[in-house]
Structures are given as structure tokens and as C-alpha cells.
């Protein structure tokens, strides 16, 4: 039985109609290749079942075409979308991911950094289940690192996070669009930056039309029960509220259920908007919860793109890059 001839890089380039050097750059994920060209090369490689020799590529470039991805919470609802987005982006450059869960343990985290450096990874993506700034690990690495969702405390590092303030502004603008004018805010714990940024965004939207919060903001735990307690506190204030923005979907579900328990119709009398677009909460809430999506998969994609650029020697502006949020409108607000 004849063995099929293995496709070469020249075969891929010929089928895609590009030079061999261009095909090589497109397959390696190198920058400065037009997306249309990259797509043609990738399609040709798939059609020909082309498999590059990673050993040869490593010897030539000094790279291993692998990235270390360290998280503190491998099964968390915040980190999983970030990881999937990063994987999707890195796969286009034929890069492998070495994945480790530090279980929120700094000692274990350091251990995995050292183990991955011993395996000569080309760079790191570091993420966590908390959106607050975290201690930098870059100083103990000899390769680039990008922080996703949980930004580094160091201004010289590259971090990619959701734009919490812009998301809060989206929530406020939506409530105004549906005719609400007496709007309250229920944030998470005051120790979290996200609680303040999301509330600031709401205030930005209200200020743009000459309005203020109808009552002082409340700050509670990230839970449904805390949302119920907040709803009772708002009702006691007798502020004639017609809209509530909550800093998480869990809080928003509690607020919605407690309002309805006290005879306040949602959304006929009060529109409610949550944050995170966690379908476990948004779709289980009745009526279904309008929520701000943090686009965490996009956060992961952008973080992986920035890491690929750093590995390739392309300058990347240090600091925090904020990925825009979207709002998903459901029955709780209209």
C-alpha cells in the first residue's frame, strides 16, 4: 500500500498563492500578516493536512511554541471563558498551552512558574477568579507575561481586563432609554474595585442627562441573599425607585425576587439590570435578567494576542487594556 506524500510548506504556499516566507509567517502566528492572507494559508494547510515539524521550528527559532497558562481557579465561571478565548487565539499560531491550576495558593503558583520555565515555555498568561489587581510574577520570569482579568499591580506589566466602568455606563444608558429616571445602585463589597467602577459608570450615564442616583448606593456581598437584603433596605428608604442597577447577577436576582415578594412588579414598576451575564442566574431569574456581559472570552483572546506580539518582539504598550462590555437585554428591564 502506497504511503501518501506528506505535504510541505512549499505545497501550502503554492495552494494559497503566496510566497513560502509568507506562508511560514502566517502559520507561526507572526504579526504583520493580513488576516485575509492568514486565512488562505490556514485553509490550504488544513486542506493538505499539513503538519509542520515543531522540532525543526524550535531549532531554527529557539522557541518551543508553547505558553504557560496559570490560573487560581480552573473551574470558575470567570476564568473558564478567559482560558477558552486564549486557547482559541493561540491555536491559530499553532501554539500549545501548558495549563496549571494554583488553587489560589501563592506557593503553588510559584512552583508552577518554575516548572514551566524549566520546560522553556515562550511566555505566560496569568489569570484568576478575582478582578482586583494582583501581585506581579514577571520579575521571576525570563519570558513575556500577560495578565488577564486580574491585572498586575505593576504599571510596567501588560494586563487585559473588562471595562467595568464602561459596562456600568451601558447599564445606566439602557435604564434611561427605557424611561427610568429614579435609579438606584447596589454594588458588591466595597473592597472590590469592580464595585466602585461599575457604580461610577452608572453615575457617568446619569450625569450626562443631569440626573443623580435617587438614593445613596448600597454595598453588599456577592450573593442572592445580600440582594434580597438590599431590596428590603431600598424599600424602607421609600425613594420611589423605578430602576436598579446591580453589580452582579446574583445580587440582581435577589433584588428582583424580593421586590416581587413585596408586590413590586418587575419590570412594570421597576426595571432591573445585573452584571456578568451569567446564564445560570440570568435565565433562572423571572423575568429573565437584563445583564452586562464582560466578554471574558474576548479578554482571553486579546491577552493571547498581546502575548504573541511580545514573544515576536513587537512592542506592546504596558499598563491595563480594557475590553468593552456589551449589554444583553431581557425581560427584567423592558
From TrEMBL:
Which part of the chain is the HTH lacI-type domain? Answer: 7-61
Keyword list, A-Z = DNA-binding, Transcription, Transcription regulation
Q: Name one GO molecular function term.
A: transcription cis-regulatory region binding
Gene3D superfamilies given in the database record: 3.40.50.2300, lambda repressor-like DNA-binding domains
Q: Which Pfam families match?
A: LacI (PF00356), Peripla_BP_3 (PF13377)
Matching PROSITE patterns: HTH_LACI_2 (PS50932)
Q: Transferase: is it a keyword of this entry?
A: no
Q: What is this protein called?
A: Catabolite control protein A
Amino acid at each position: 500500500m502506497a504511503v501518501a506524500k506528506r505535504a510541505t510548506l512549499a505545497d501550502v504556499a503554492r495552494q494559497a498563492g503566496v510566497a513560502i516566507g509568507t506562508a511560514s509567517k502566517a502559520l507561526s502566528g507572526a504579526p504583520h500578516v493580513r488576516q485575509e492572507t492568514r486565512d488562505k494559508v490556514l485553509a490550504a494547510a488544513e486542506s493538505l493536512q499539513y503538519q509542520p515539524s515543531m522540532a525543526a521550528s524550535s531549532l531554527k527559532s529557539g522557541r518551543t511554541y508553547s505558553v504557560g497558562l496559570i490560573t487560581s481557579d480552573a473551574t470558575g465561571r470567570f476564568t473558564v471563558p478567559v482560558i477558552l478565548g486564549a486557547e482559541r487565539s493561540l491555536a491559530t499560531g499553532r501554539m500549545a498551552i501548558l495549563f496549571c491550576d494554583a488553587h489560589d495558593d501563592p506557593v503553588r503558583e510559584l512552583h508552577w512558574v518554575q516548572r514551566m520555565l524549566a520546560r522553556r515555555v515562550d511566555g505566560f498568561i496569568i489569570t484568576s477568579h478575582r478582578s482586583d489587581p494582583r501581585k506581579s510574577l514577571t520579575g521571576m520570569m525570563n519570558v513575556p507575561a500577560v495578565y488577564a482579568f486580574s491585572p498586575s499591580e505593576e504599571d510596567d506589566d501588560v494586563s487585559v481586563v473588562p471595562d467595568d466602568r464602561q459596562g456600568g455606563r451601558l447599564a445606566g444608558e439602557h435604564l434611561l432609554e427605557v424611561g427610568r429616571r429614579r435609579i438606584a445602585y447596589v454594588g458588591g463589597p466595597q473592597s472590590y474595585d469592580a464595585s466602585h467602577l461599575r457604580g461610577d459608570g452608572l453615575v457617568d450615564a446619569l450625569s450626562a442627562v443631569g440626573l443623580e442616583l435617587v438614593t445613596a448606593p448600597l454595598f453588599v456581598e456577592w450573593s442572592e441573599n445580600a440582594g434580597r437584603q438590599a431590596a428590603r433596605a431600598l424599600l424602607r428608604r421609600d425613594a420611589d425607585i423605578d430602576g436598579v442597577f446591580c453589580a452582579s447577577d446574583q445580587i440582581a436576582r435577589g433584588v428582583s425576587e424580593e421586590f416581587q415578594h413585596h408586590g413590586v412588579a418587575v419590570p412594570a414598576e421597576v426595571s432591573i439590570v445585573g452584571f456578568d451575564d451569567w446564564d445560570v442566574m440570568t435565565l433562572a431569574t423571572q423575568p429573565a435578567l437584563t445583564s452586562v456581559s464582560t466578554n471574558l472570552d474576548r479578554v482571553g483572546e486579546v491577552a493571547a494576542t498581546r502575548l504573541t506580539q511580545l514573544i515576536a518582539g513587537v512592542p506592546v504598550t504596558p499598563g491595563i487594556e480594557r475590553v468593552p462590555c456589551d449589554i444583553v437585554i431581557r425581560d427584567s428591564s423592558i
